[in-house]
Amino acid sequence: MCKVVAAEYLTLDGVMENPAWTAPYFNEELGEFQRELLFASDALLLGRVTYEGFAAAWPGMKDEDGFADRMNNMPKYVASRMLQTAGWNAEILPGDVAAAVAKLKEEPGQNLLIYGSGQLVEYLRQHDLIDQYRLMVHPLVLGSGQRLFTAEINSTFKLVSSHTTSTGVLVLTYERVSA
Fold first, then answer.
1. pLDDT digit string (tens) for 149-175?
2. CA–CA distance from 113 to each of 3, 121, 153, 179 (Å)?
3. How confident is the model over 7-51, as pLDDT tens digits?
4. Quick one: three-class SS letters along the chain?
5. Torsion 60-64-68-73 (CA) sign
6. Least buried of 1, 105, 112, 119, by fewest C-beta within 10 Å?
7. The pLDDT of residue 106
């Protein structure tokens, strides 16, 4: 069975929106955490807004460590009510997104990785489909913006690892506690 892993950049006050604020904190350490997570995944699972931003930027990217090739070549599943078709090696999830993701989780393989996609992550959390969070908490407070957790639904996770980068980003990995 696959795991659904949500990788999220957050501020201390839980803002995840438009993470341009992450740039001063990104370094090789954080890049290695992202690389490890991407290469431990078989596919990306994205909301429409994140998919459209990524699909506009990533196809032209090149690098020496294979990260861009992996991003560009791996399958992508997009949750959208608006899009009818998708490029960049992506397909639109059919029908009920929670049911489609539950079906994907039943397939053998590694992780289904979500980057950003706040509404999708919250929707999947409400349906108990997120298995792991990789939260990269940045040492700043924005005061306003989209938060990661918005609905009052209890979900229990256990901390399985933590690391502080030299730029002060706290990388926390939480796994869902089975009911």
1. 887 777 788 999 999 999 999 999 999
2. 8, 11, 22, 23
3. 999 999 999 988 899 999 999 999 999 999 999 999 999 999 999
4. CCEEEEEEEEECCCECCCHHHHHHHCCHHHHHHHHHHHHCEEEEEEEHHHHHHHHHHHHHCCCCCCHHHHHHHCCEEEECCCCCCCCCCEEECCCCHHHHHHHHHCCCCCEEEEECCHHHHHHHHHCCCCCEEEEEEECCCCCCCCECCCCCCCCCEEEEEEEECCCCCEEEEEEECCC
5. positive
6. 1
7. 94
Residue 1, pLDDT score: 83
CB atoms within 10 A of CB 143: 7
pLDDT digits (tens, 9 = 90+) for 121-146: 999 999 999 999 999 999 999 999 99
- How far does Cα 177 stand from its chain's mean position? 19
- The fold for domain 3-176 equals Dihydrofolate Reductase, subunit A (3.40.430)
Query: In the chain, what are the domain boundaries?
Result: 3-176
